[in-house]
C-alpha cells in the first residue's frame, strides 16, 4: 500500500505548500482512495506534483464534519464525477469551536449532503473487501481536553460535541491491518481498541492525528496525558505515522517513548506500508 500526504500542517520541503488540515492519497491493490480533502484546493495542486490523477480516485472518505478535513469536497466533486464519497450521516450537521464566548462555524457545506456521489454512512460499513469504516467509539480513556471547546448542533441545541460524526477506516491487505483516522477526537486509544475488536487482530499500522493540541488557542495537552497515551500505544506490534492535530511538541514527547515506532507525515511525504 502506498500513502502520499497531499495536505498537512507542515511540508517536507519548500516544493510543497502546506495548510492546517489533512488529505492522504492511499493506493491499495484495488482502490485509489483519498482520505479527507482539507479545506481548499491545495490537494489538487499537490496531487499533480506527486503524480496523483484526481479523476482516477474511486473512493473518498471524509473522517468527520470539520472544515479542515472536508470543506474541499465541493472542489473534489468539480474534478471527479465518479468516485463515491463516504461520510457519516450527521457530519453535515452544524459544528462550532467556542472562542472568547463566540461559536465559530467549523462545519461542512451541508448543501452537498444529498449529492449523488455522496454515500451517508452509519455505525459500521464494509465499503469493499478489506475496507471497513466504523464510528461511535466510546470516549472512555485518554480523552483530549481540547475537545471541550468543540460543539455540535443537536436538535435545537448547541451542545458539547460527542463526535458521533467521526469515522475511521481499517484497510486489511496482505496480512496487515492498517487503521487510518482523522483527528481521533474520540481518542486514539479508544479507536485502536475498537478497531482491534472489529478485525479480531492487532493493528499493524496507524496513520492518524492524535488531537493533542487546540489549533485555535494553541494549547497543548498536559505532559501527563501525552506520556500516558504514548505508553499505552507502546505494544511492540504497531507502528504509528502521525501528523496534523498531534502537534510537533506532543510528537517529540511521544517519540521519546515510541522511538522508531513513531514517525511524522508532512505534505509531500510518500511511504509504503
Ligand atoms: Fe476535527
Ligand atoms: Fe483537524
Percent helix among the residues?
10-25%
- In the sheet with the most strands, the strands line up as 8-5-4-3-2-1-18
How many beta-strand elements? Answer: 18
Shape: globular
- What is the subunit arrangement here? single chain
Bound molecules: fe (ii) ion
Which radius of gyration do the C-alpha atoms yield?
Answer: 17 Å
Give the strand content.
25-35%
Secondary-structure element order, N to C: EEEHEHHEEEEEEEEEEHEHEHEE
Mean pLDDT: 96
How many separate helices? 6
Specify the structural class.
Answer: alpha/beta
Query: What distance lies between the first and last C-alpha atoms, to the nearest angstrom?
Result: 5 Å
Q: How would a textbook summarize the main sheet?
A: 7 strands, mixed
The low-confidence parts are none
Question: Can you describe this structure?
Answer:
Strands 8-5-4-3-2-1-18 form a seven-stranded mixed β-sheet. A seven-stranded mixed β-sheet has the order 9-10-13-14-15-16-17, covered by helices on one side. The chain contains six helices and 18 strands. 44% of the residues are buried. 19% of the residues lie in helices and 30% in strands. Strand 16 (239-242), helix 6 and strand 17 form a beta-alpha-beta unit. It is α/β, with parallel strands linked by helices and 273 residues long. One fe (ii) ion is lined by residues 66, 68-69, 183, 244-245.
Topology:
Layout: E1 2-7, E2 23-27, E3 32-35, H1 42-49, E4 59-61, H2 67-70, H3 73-79, E5 84-88, E6 95-99, E7 102-105, E8 118-121, E9 124-128, E10 131-135, E11 150-154, E12 157-160, E13 167-173, E14 176-180, H4 188-199, E15 205-208, H5 223-233, E16 239-242, H6 248-258, E17 262-264, E18 270-272
Parallel strand pairs: 3-4, 4-5, 5-8, 14-15, 15-16, 16-17
Antiparallel strand pairs: 1-2, 1-18, 2-3, 6-7, 6-11, 9-10, 10-13, 11-12, 13-14
Helix pairs in contact: 5-6
Bound molecules: fe (ii) ion (2 copies).
